[in-house]
Each structure stands twice: as structure tokens, then as C-alpha cells.
Amino acid sequence: MAIYFWAFVVGGAICVMGQIMFDVFKLTPAHTLSTLVCLGAVLDGFGLYEPLIEFAGAGATVPITSFGNSLVHGAMAEAEKHGIIGVITGMFEVTSSGISAAIIFGFIGAVLFKPKG
């Protein structure tokens, strides 16, 4: 039961940070998105994001900060195997399935339903 509470608190805190960026700092959605992705990447670079995932579960894996974590995590894993080339291929390898799924499901949704435009 506690995992649900901490997932809610951590995920909510990440969302609150994004909302503060919108409201207080008047950042655009693109700037807010980029900042949160970079935050996840930096936290993973320092080895802090994986413990956060273990602690909060979906509260840390669902928000956009997890995308930055995935980029760095994949790049570092492949760099150990293939050197500098692995940095580039690792980022694409780890995140390609999520991006591909978003494109495919977005296309299927557009075919099945009438988009408003």
C-alpha cells in the first residue's frame, strides 16, 4: 500500500515542478519538457534516478523525467560495450520502442477516429 502513496507523492512532485515552471517562470511547454528530460538525465548520470524508481515505482517511471533517464541509461550501457559509438546507438536502442509505439498508436487513432482540425 505504501508504494502507491510514494508513487503518488513523487509523480505529483514532478508534475508540480512542471506546473511551477509554467506558472511562475513563464516557461513554454517546450522549455518545461526539455528541462524535465534533462533533469532525469542528470539524475541518472549521478546514479540517483534508479533508486528513485525503486522507491516510487510508477511515480518515477511515468513522468517525462524517465525519458531522460532512459536516454542516459541506454547510452552508458552501450558505451561500455561498444565505446563512443555505443553512446549514440544506445540512446536510440532503448527509446525506440516507446517512440515507435507512440507513432503507430497515434496513426491508428487518426485512422479510426475523425481528428478535429
Automatic annotation (TrEMBL):
Pfam families: SpoVAC_SpoVAEB. It comes from the Bacteria. The chain crosses the membrane at residues 6-25, 84-113. InterPro entries: Spore_V_AE (IPR014204), SpoVA (IPR005562). Keywords: Membrane, Transmembrane, Transmembrane helix. PANTHER family: STAGE V SPORULATION PROTEIN AC-RELATED, STAGE V SPORULATION PROTEIN AEB. This is Stage V sporulation protein AE.
